[in-house]
Amino acid sequence: MANTSDIKNGLCIKHNDKLFQVIEFQHVKPGKGPAFVRTKMRSIETGRVLDNTFSAGHKIDIVRIENREYQYLYEEEDYFIFMNNESYEQVSIVKSMIEKPGFLQEGMICNILFHAEEELPLVVELPMHIISEITYTEPGVKGDTATNSMKAATIATGAEVKVPLFIDMGEVIKIDTRTGIYVERVKK
Length: 188
Known about the structure:
Layout: E1 2-3, E2 12-15, E3 18-28, E4 36-43, E5 49-55, E6 59-62, E7 65-76, E8 79-83, E9 90-94, E10 109-115, E11 120-125, E12 129-137, E13 150-155, E14 160-164, E15 172-176, E16 181-186
Antiparallel strand pairs: 1-6, 2-3, 2-6, 3-4, 4-5, 7-8, 7-10, 8-9, 10-11, 12-13, 12-15, 13-14, 15-16
C-alpha cells in the first residue's frame, strides 16, 4: 500500500470504494500544523471532478489501469462489440459506458481503459475527431458564411450536430467528439 508521497498526475487510486484518476496535486507544508496533499481527482465511472485533501502519510490504494486500443465492430442489442487487433479477442461494452455513442463508426479505433487486475473494462474513449458525411440538413444559402449561425444536421452515424448555414447534404465534415461541435469542412 502506498502513501501520499506517491501521488502524481495520472495516478489511479481507489477512494471511498470508487476509482479516481489524479488530475492535479499539490504538497502543502503550512508554517503551522501538519503537511497535507491537496488533489483534484476525476471519477473514472462518472467523469465528475472531486477536490480532496489527504493528510501527509495517509495510505492510498493504487489501482493499475491499462489503456488498450480496440476496434469497434458492430452494435448488438444493448452492447457495442470491440476487437483487439493484436489478439483478435472481442469484448462487449454496455452502451452506457460510452459518453457519445452516436459518433461510433464501424472500424473506428478506440481506447478502452481496463482495470488490470480484474480485466474489467472501465471507460471507452473515442478518437478526438471523426470525419463523417452529412446525410440530412436544410439547404444552405449562398453567402451565409458571414455569420456564426448554426443549423441542425444529421451525420452518417445518425448523430445530430450543429453546422454552419453554408454546409449542404453530401458534404464531409470533421467533428470534435468530446463536444459534438463542427470543426471544419473536409475536401473529398
